[in-house]
Amino acid sequence: MDPRHRQIRVLFENDDLIAVDKPEGIASIPERNPATICLLKLLCDERGQKFYVVHRLDKQVSGVILFAKNPETHRHLNLMFEQRKVRKTYMGCMHGAIAQDTGVIEIPLRRFGSGRMGPDQARGKPCRTDFCVVQRIAGCSLVQVTPATGRKHQIRAHFLAIGHPIVGDTLYGDKLLQKTFPRLMLHALSIRFTSSAGEEIRIESPPGDSFWAVFRLFHNRPRTE
Asked: Using CA atoms, how far apart are residues 73 and 62, in angstroms rounded to an integer?
């Protein structure tokens, strides 16, 4: 469905900020081509007001995303992100059976000329990704992921580095295999932070039908392990 025809689902709203459920396949903010629709423009047009970008989700990622309504909240939330006081949790479906139930990936990453992020122990920036395996089925692992740092494509590059790329990720993994899936199986499940008024706020968005439809494909596969 054309994203312009989707109604934006509001997850949380007060006088200072709004959190919405971003569909997969739509950019968070304007891309290089100004004619391409993005979530920020859709929201501004729908509400007839200005919103401020706080953070981003990759175009192929779905789930919780925040926008500020005024400069003061924008500054506060930016500071919270800079100080790593915002806790973001994702749900991902990774290729293969991840052996450990819980784990930490601490592999320095840097950006390469292709635009991809990759491991580089000498020149990479420190990165940490915590994870917990929720379920293992034939050919994949359903994983809850909490990035302690917020590098570009961090989750995607980290799981590729340990041999378990995210299902449907054509940038990180076997392209021929990844193209057989209709979406990138990464969803921003929740976000938790403290407002400028000192209120603890937690906003959640369970994965939608498009996520579970792909996950069910693995349920129908015979177990070979």
From this structure: 24
